[in-house]
Amino acid sequence: MRTFLTGAMIFIAVLIAVMLLRAFLGPRYTDRLVAVNLISTLGLCEVFLLVVLTRESFLLDIALIYALVSFVTTTVLSRIIVRREERSRRQRAATKSLEEEGEDEA
Amino acid sequence: MRTAIGCALVGVGVVILFTAVVGMFRFKYTLNRMHSAAMADTLGIGFIMLGCIVLYGFSAATGKMILLLVFLWLTAPISSHLLARMDILTQQKPGKYWKEEKR
Predict the structure, then answer these.
(1) Taking the CB of residue B35, how many other CB atoms lie within 10 A of it?
(2) Interface test with B, best of A18, A34, A66, A71 (most B CBs within 10 A)
(3) pLDDT tops 90 at residue B18
(4) Pick from A34, A60, A64: which is nearest to B34 by CB?
(5) How close, in Å, is residue A80 to chain B by CA atoms?
(6) Which residue in A has a C-alpha nearest to residue B41's C-alpha?
(7) Total structural domains within chain A
(8) What is the spatial distance between Cα A49 and Cα A55, in angstroms, rounded to a whole number?
């Protein structure tokens, strides 16, 4: 059992390295965010396997904090970016209506 | 017997995680990639958690694990919804996803 769990942990570590490559390559920033979310999920899996291997249940608290932080990261980033996008759209609409008024007068 | 069942569950979870990572490289756009990332978020971590519960045995830590799993299953859809909204709002060319399907 110990060798199997150690092998699984090593395999998941390789998957985390591969996902870092994906986060580096991703053409858009949302691709990178999805990759970072998946990295945090894989890290949680590592922590669970470590709990079973070392029989230390206090690591679960660390896993809980990790899950909370990854959720808050996504929420705060999305709030900031959506606010900025809405503001720039409003500005664009305002400048467009100003230009149309100018054309009417001419 | 219990060890065999737990190891099998952990193995299935690791295979599902591997499938999700392969999908992240084979799909082209963000929404397609989120489809494969959600699989790891729910099914892969669920199987690994089940295997860990079987291997660890029943105690107070098991309840904590189940609570963590419920928390993850509640927050993963919310964060993927926010990500998808962010992607669609800031898209430069609208209709990119449908153009690709016609070909």
Answers:
(1) 15
(2) A34
(3) yes
(4) A34
(5) 10
(6) A41
(7) 1
(8) 10
Angle between helices B60-89 and A59-105 (to 10 degrees): 20
Domain extents for chain B?
Answer: 2-102
Domain containing A12 equals 2-105
Tell whether the model's pLDDT for residue B38 goes beyond 70: yes
- Here the ipTM equals 0.84
Cβ pair B24, A19 in contact under 8 A: yes
CB B28 within 8 A of CB A25: no
Decide if B6 and A75 are in contact by the 8 Å CB cutoff.
no
Q: Do B14 and A1 touch (CB under 8 A)?
A: no
Please judge whether B68 and A63 are an interchain contact, meaning their C-beta atoms are less than 8 angstroms apart: yes
The overall average pLDDT reported for chain B is: 85
Where residue A42 falls among pLDDT bands split at 50, 70, 90? Answer: very high
> Å from A82 to nearest chain B CA?
6
Give the pLDDT score at A87.
Answer: 87
- Per the CB < 8 Å rule, is B21 touching A45? no
A30 Cβ contact list (under 8 Å, min separation 6): B30, B83, B86, B87, B90
Separation of alpha carbons A30 and A40, rounded Å: 15
Burial class (CB in 10 A: 0-12, 13-18, 19+), A15: buried
Shortest CA gap A97–chain B (Å): 21
**Other CB atoms within 10 Å distance of the CB of residue A55:** 10
